[in-house]
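> agent: user asked for a holo structure of the chain below bound to pyridoxal-5'-phosphate. Plan: (1) validate sequence alphabet, (2) canonicalize SMILES, (3) run complex prediction with ligand conditioning, (4) return tokens. Step 1... ok. Step 2... ok. Step 3 dispatched.
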Amino acid sequence: MFIGNEDIQPLKKKVLLASPTMHEEEMRYIKEAFEKNWITTAGDNVNELERISAEYIGCGYAVGLSSGTAALHMCMKLAGEKINPVARPEGALTGQKVFCTDMTFDATVNPVLYEGGCPVFIDTDDEDWNMSTEALKKAFEIYPDTRLVIVADLYGTPGKLEKLRKICREHGALLIEDAAESLGAKYNIDGKWQKAGTFGDYNAISFNGNKIITGSAGGMFLTDSEEDANKVRKWSTQAREAAPWYQHEELGFNYRISNIIAGIARGQFAHLGEHIAKKKEIYDRYRKGLEDLPVSMNPYDEKAVEPNFWLSCMLIHQEAMCRQVRSDREALYVPEHGKTCPTEILETMAKYNIEGRPIWKPMHMQPIYRNNGFVTTSGKGRAMTNAYISGKAEDVGMDIFARGLCLPSDIKMTKEEQDMVIDIIRRCFE
Ligand SMILES: Cc1ncc(COP(=O)(O)O)c(C=O)c1O
């Protein structure tokens, strides 16, 4: 229960969850685009951003698009055409089930529907908050015909990517990696570090305004296949055929990145390492500052993974949770001495002009996906209790959603401001 005190006052300037941090190069590249009049979806900034993205991440080709969501859409279309090459203008994934990360932003999943597919949600691993390998294995037992899996690297931490990929291979399924939040994160395979965004057959990153680096918007499709990169270039520019007029044989999209936006992201790239280092400092300071409280930080396997620490999050131990209920729109809690809950902490931080955020609400609990399948390590995750047998429905994602929250992780936050966030959290446990 929060015990207020006159000695803390609301901050004059809001501490944000994660806002853009600009440097000098961004404006220089924008100016260059103006001077050369490349105010369009082509130009040096687009070319250079693609080149440095592919080089940094370590993949053959990068195609600049208007958003990470557009990049994921292109991944879905490519995967759909590979699984079933018969032309399907109504959607390349029509009739296909797709296993999806459950605890993520809905932009991971919506592109499945853009191509007519049907998401089935795979429960979360409490060791890294990403897709559970055990639940994925169960899903292949229940739905053996599934040929596509999309995994997101939550909050900048890759999950068990190598194992997940192996399970996909064993079942003849393709893998898409949604690395929107994890640019710069690394995964160790046999002593060699490999960057996030290279583990899938098709991969996507995002330059959205809240990401580790930004173009204000924008995204990138990543692949080692020249043919796939060229298909995405074609589809994202209205799928024009080689003819002296506008000739179209397949459905196209207007998804290319703008040369101005690409200029901002290009300028940011030089500062990616610095942003990651600052995010890590923030994470470590929270870990230290909260260590004697009944909480833990968003976990990762220190030997196998180097996150980019995009968002620091915390999880309240069950025994320190006060009662909290959430409807589809509102949250209520019962204050209790010595205990707290995410709603109390978020509301208290907001009073002091500090922005936090709930954990992504799992997709299988979203009204839009209420009829889609959900698989846990025990098997089917829905309808597992009845009036006669008192079972407990397993649901790691909903448990993390209930007990966890995202802490302000803005790299412009000062040490003093972060100390105040920590102090407020401490007082919520009084
Ligand atoms: C996990 C995840 N996937 C996809 C996206 C979509 O990226 P964008 O906003 O660039 O479309 C985001 C972020 O916005 C994200 O966090």
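> agent: step 4 complete. Summary for user: Residues 67-69, 104-105, 107-108, 152, 178, 180-181, 206, 208, 219 surround pyridoxal-5'-phosphate (CB under 6 Å). The CA atoms of residues 243 and 252 lie 16 Å apart.
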